[in-house]
User: What shape does this take?
Amino acid sequence: MSGMTEMPDPALVPEWTLGWRLQRSLAHAEITVNEIADALNVSRATISRWINDRGAAPRPIYVKEWALRTGVPYTWLAYGTAADEH
Assistant: This one.
């Protein structure tokens, strides 16, 4: 019965990356990679790097615009939190 009070092993908790959240927000809003690239005035290759966690992360101005376009909270998209903790 002590299993109910034990904390999960941190190694077993998946890491939800910025790229994963960017992908999920596109799916949520039913927006394609091409559409978000056009909206942000960046290349499709740039969007691909961002959603696949390759290279530099998008600047905050892009993350804010992405959040507005997809209808998800900026704090969740940028930091993985629901509350405005940052």
Observations:
- The chain has one domain: 17-79.
- The chain is about 50% helix and 0% strand.
- The chain has a mean pLDDT of 88.
- The CA atoms of residues 26 and 32 lie 7 Å apart.
